[in-house]
């Protein structure tokens, strides 16, 4: 097998950096928060994932100081909203680099629904939302210890909203919910449906969820 090898610190030597396309498709952290001036904020973060099961902890990385980071630092709270195919265009609009006094819910024609345990609103049109309390904000660093201007925000999920329509006999139906995922390049996304589902059980009894 002929291999293209590169050291990222010296460049990738390709027309586009393949990193995002390789670590993908990624779930999208569509994060709502509230500023100190009480302005709602909503933005997508695809450097996002789940990191623990009990208690559930999710995290996203802010590459640079952004409104969401400032809001979650000040309030200690955020909401994760599920991005679906039906909400793709609206999600994309909310990534606009606008002033902190602009409410991206209004910009994207979305409805703010009140959360129950945190003050940040959730996206009413989204079938799933996690209300989160910030647990850690970690500034990333290079292997040599040099600080990187990226902050990983981790939050415990303290409240979960699931549209009843996404539950089939009480089981959450990932394929039916129409999740969208971010891949590489300037515009690549994937969606998942029943045709992508396959099942494989562990060879020994499971002690953790995956
Ligand atoms: C699908 C998608 C994923 C994104 N992922 C990230 C990310 O992981 N980290 C980041 O800093 N910006 C990411 N961005 C860009 C932010 O959404 C953008 O900078 C936005 O203006 C930040 O909003 P805020 O200042 O209101 O927090 C992403 C944009 C899109 C469309």
UniProtKB/TrEMBL annotation:
The lineage of its organism: Bacteria, Pseudomonadati, Pseudomonadota, Betaproteobacteria, Burkholderiales. Keywords: Oxidoreductase. Its EC number is 1.5.1.-. GO terms for molecular function: oxidoreductase activity. This is Flavin reductase family protein. Pfam families: Flavin_Reduct. Residues 23-174 form the Flavin reductase like domain. Coiled coil: none annotated. InterPro entries: Flavin_Rdtase-like_dom, Split_barrel_FMN-bd.
